[in-house]
Design a protein that fits this description.
Layout: H1 2-6, H2 14-33, H3 38-55, E1 60-62, E2 69-71, H4 77-104, E3 112-117, H5 123-135, E4 139-144, E5 149-154, H6 157-164, H7 167-175, E6 183-185, H8 195-214
Helix pairs in contact: 2-3, 5-7
Length: 215
């Protein structure tokens, strides 16, 4: 716990981060217990404080491109709410499009894999982007490379073009206050592998998954 408050590379305020964890745990205590007597609320405060002391240090994550340290639960909650409302709208719109394709004709299904680079420094930003893509019907995140390249499977060119417009990627960058080098890439180039090795590695992963499913 001392290391957390002494971390000079931490981007956010450590005391505010501790308060966020404490408040979240206390809220869970009150909601799950449904007892609002002073004695039980006091028990909840003590429990939330002790648990916060134990877990606060494990909620730090290092930056992917810098020496910065990020608190995994820290975000602009107003911007986060706006983003999730926008994401719900996109999910509903894509769900309608996918339903239309299923009910009308399979000719509109033309699956393809696309790659783009969104080199966030905060790992939480990459995680939210990957999950947002998968939550949106018509697109599924396949892999994320160390260089910040995302590999995504799309149902057809329309869904791929919608993703490659960069709207979702830039919204998440604003959410975490980052400036990213966003661009569409035709060939996957990773910092640790050659182009050929990356393609072979991805193929091997698919083969292993298929074997497990068949087994």
């Amino acid at each position: 716990m001392r290391d957390f408050f002494r971390d000079r590379h931490l981007v956010s305020n450590p005391y505010l981060n501790f308060l966020e964890v404490f408040s979240l745990l206390l809220l869970l205590w009150i909601v799950m217990s449904e007892i609002f007597q002073v004695k039980f609320v006091l028990y909840g405060c003590i429990s939330a404080f002790l648990i916060s002391c134990f877990v606060i240090d494990s909620l730090r994550i290092g930056g992917l491109k810098s020496d910065c340290t990020y608190f995994i639960l820290h975000a602009n909650y107003l911007k986060l709410l706006i983003y999730f409302l926008w994401l719900i709208k996109e999910v509903v719109k894509s769900a309608v499009d996918v339903t239309g394709i299923i009910l009308t004709s399979n000719d509109k299904i033309d699956p393809l894999v696309v790659w783009f680079k969104a080199d966030y420094d905060n790992p939480a930003a990459r995680a939210i982007l990957a999950n947002s893509i998968t939550l949106t019907p018509g697109t599924v995140t396949i892999d994320i490379y160390d260089s910040g390249v995302f590999s995504v499977h799309a149902l057809n060119r329309k869904f791929a073009d919608g993703l490659l417009s960069g709207d979702m990627q830039k919204r998440i960058a604003k959410l975490y206050g980052e400036e990213i080098d966003y661009r569409v890439v035709d060939v996957v180039v990773d910092t640790d592998y050659t182009v050929k090795e990356v393609v072979e590695l991805t193929t091997k992963r698919f083969k292993r998954r298929r074997k497990k499913k068949n087994a």
